[in-house]
Amino acid sequence: MVWTTYAGFVRSSRRLRWRIGLPAVILIIAALSMAPSRGTVLPLRADGVTVEPGGAVATVPAASGAAFVPGTSVLSTEDRSDPAVTARIDDDRRWLADGDIPGHGTRYHAMSERALLDLRALTSPTGALMAAPITAWRHVWPRDASFAAAAYAVTGHDEEAADVLGFLARVAPADGQWEARYLADGSGPPDDRPQQLDSAGWVLWAVWLVSRTVEPDVAAEVLEELRPAVIASANAIVDSLGDDGLPEPSSDYWEKEETELTLGVAAPLSLGLRSALALAPLIGVEDPYVWTNAARRLDEAVEREFGAHGYPRTLPDGGADAAVTFLAPPFAPSTPDVSEAVRATELALRVPNGGHRPGEAWRKDVDVAWTPETALLALALAGNGDREDADRLLTFLDSYRTPLGSLPEKVDSEATPASVAPLAWTSSLVLLTLAELEKPLPVVPAAG
């Protein structure tokens, strides 16, 4: 029996109560309340972000009908006779020309160019990288900032990569226990949200990747400035490991309180320790034995516990999760088991509009695609050599940009851009994926 409305269900339940009993009716109501929500239509909260002639960043409202001056973040309605407007246009175009645009000359050129310009607009002169230009997203997540630094580095924007990591160095906790997010002025966290263990892993990876890809003089400055954060973060990861080699439960990229360890924490911490080991000789850590031993124990535990079940979100059967991508290139050397798990996860998490939800255990808005997860899968597929499938996911992301061309956080069940835009994490991931398709990104080596 199917009830189309709650009122209809109540009437039907009254008729059934004498047959199945009140307790059973209560269980049915509870089950319906826990059922996944499908067919969700969400608003688009912005078309994009613009940089005004004086340098101020402003959100462009949804359905604005606005357009950019080509190759810039300047709206076409600005007065082109104003020297400040001309200077801003020239500055944006010069900045793009000074770096690389992944996917140049392909159908993804426009998406790549806008992703770069959006990242630039979301990065303050202090290096604070806002996740998005709207309300609660106007903060700095260590994870998002780490990916932005990586994207800047692989596209030839060395100074911006160094600036973003410089902000992280200034807010870095002495004990290596990173907050989930920070105020853009660097004064601390915006609320009492629990700390997230995975942040340490992402920061360590970003420092390693940036040090490998920027000019030597910039790399030297980054390593000197980030040295204390690298050591503290690596030590914090070591301290988090239990006798079984796995870390304690923590919030991960789902940003929900967790009582069980997730792959979304274990995988980034594995990445972080391996990155710290690769950084050790560059920052003067002569005998990283403790890091080496911990990295081996953690990697063995992840393969033993998570790998045995196909790399689910939680053990033993938490369902497929996009976090499996954190075990694939460029985050780790390719293995047959992880490659197969990535392919299986891409299929399991696909929603009708062609994008992907975070995991099989994600129970809210299950027909809504999340662009970061879709882009993570695209990056992993590209890293594993599955170019055709990576291209399919990039095409999805390109198809559902906002009217201004920015990448939104979500694509709803009606296949329209939704939530905030631009989202820095997705912008960074798209740039990394396009760069990966042109030339494989450096892969963090296995623990020695």
TrEMBL record:
Coiled coil: none
GO BP of this protein: carbohydrate metabolic process
Domain of life according to the entry: Bacteria
InterPro entries named in the record: 6-hairpin_glycosidase_sf, 6hp_glycosidase-like_sf
Gene3D superfamilies with a match to the protein in the record: 1.50.10.10
GO molecular function: hydrolase activity, hydrolyzing O-glycosyl compounds
Protein name: Glucoamylase (Glucan-1,4-alpha-glucosidase), GH15 family
Organism in which the protein naturally occurs: Jiangella alkaliphila
